[in-house]
Write a structure and sequence with these properties.
With 139 residues, the protein is mainly alpha-helical. It has a domain of 93 residues. The protein is built from 5 helices and no strands.
Length: 139
């Protein structure tokens, strides 16, 4: 009887851990489409920068155009350096268009918020946090 219980425990231990870890691989939030990313970005900007109705509509158009361009660039790009360079170009063009829609105060606030977010991300990474699935460089 003791051997039977030991064997059942071993079999259970071998069968269930892979099943439990497989549950964590499915996400409820699949990759967002460019349209979803543009809408999310526009809503966030509208809240943070207090955009008017007209500004919000124009910012939505700009965000959608550049979200689609970024998605296309990512699909076509073969290297991280090329993708990074293209992303920087798109960001600069987007900012130039946003300057024509936002007030100088709103544009300055957007840049301030962007810098704060950048510093927060750097601090978070410095504390040893890694993106999902990434391993620290020393392991």
């Amino acid at each position: 009887m003791k051997n039977l219980l030991m064997n059942l425990a071993l079999i259970g231990a071998m069968l269930f851990p892979p099943a439990l870890t497989a549950q964590g691989t499915e996400t409820d939030d699949p990759k967002k489409t460019p349209e979803q990313r543009a809408a999310d970005r526009t809503e966030k900007m509208a809240t943070e920068l207090d955009l008017s109705g007209d500004q919000k509509a124009r910012v939505q158009e700009i965000n959608l155009r550049y979200a689609q361009a970024a998605s296309d660039a990512k699909a076509q790009s073969t290297s991280k350096d090329a993708m990074r360079k293209r992303g920087k170009e798109l960001k600069e063009k987007r900012d130039e268009e946003l300057k024509g829609v936002l007030t100088p105060e709103q544009f300055a606030k957007m840049n301030t918020l962007r810098k704060e977010k950048h510093h927060e991300a750097k601090a978070y990474k410095r504390e040893g946090h890694q993106p999902d699935g990434a391993k620290p460089h020393n392991e």
